[in-house]
Amino acid sequence: MTMTSPDDMHDHVGDALHAAAGDIARRTSASRSIAKIVEPHALARRVLEERRLIHREESVRRHADAFREIRTRLLALGGDRNFVTMVAPISSKSGGSFVARNLAAAFAFDEAKTALLIDCDLRHPSQHTALGIDANGSGLIDYLDHPAIGVEKILHHTGIPRLRLIPAGREREMSGEYFSSFRMRALLDSLRSRYPDRYLFLDGPAVKGSPDARILADLVDFVVLVAGSGRDTPGTIQKVMANFDPGKLAGIVLNQLP
Prior knowledge:
Oligomer: single chain
CATH topology of the largest domain: Rossmann fold
Order of helices and strands: HHHEHEHHEEHHEHEHE
């Protein structure tokens, strides 16, 4: 049995207290930054509902509670650290983008957290349109092609407090090369590490028909798959699930298509 001297024990306790103090300082600083965030044009309830976005009022309570439940499960998996989640539909037109933006909005409900939604469906980008944002050529691809423009140039207000969007930017047929690049990995690392209470959500492309979602999965902590009710069969769902690391696969959302 190894004995620890009082001096050694004192050093270990001191190191632990120092680390804890540093963590508290970082989180306090982040909380202050969050508190200063002002949404210049917060969307009215009517506009939110027209854009199929959840909010806190009773008229969409059932849908809001469903996304809060997904949020709770992800937070239980993620522990104390913030994380990056990819939301990807199994097949196109299954509602993956709808789930991604509302899940991000559910995280933004928490006044101690911010959410960042990144449109990674480079062939069929939709988040800027759904959120009523004029991206004006400033999105993910623009930054990856020319990082000198800076990240702030591609961050857009959404009208939802504490939720920002990075739109896809110019459409690209060949997107895998961007997702596997050093710049993409460095961007995600930077966006997550800058604020410990920021949660990132990637709106991924459909898994069927393209390797892009599987490439993106290497960059994230969790994967949420979206199956369209009546569109994706149980056999298809099982086959697609096998493409992802079981340790990252957080679950399947069955989306009742309109």
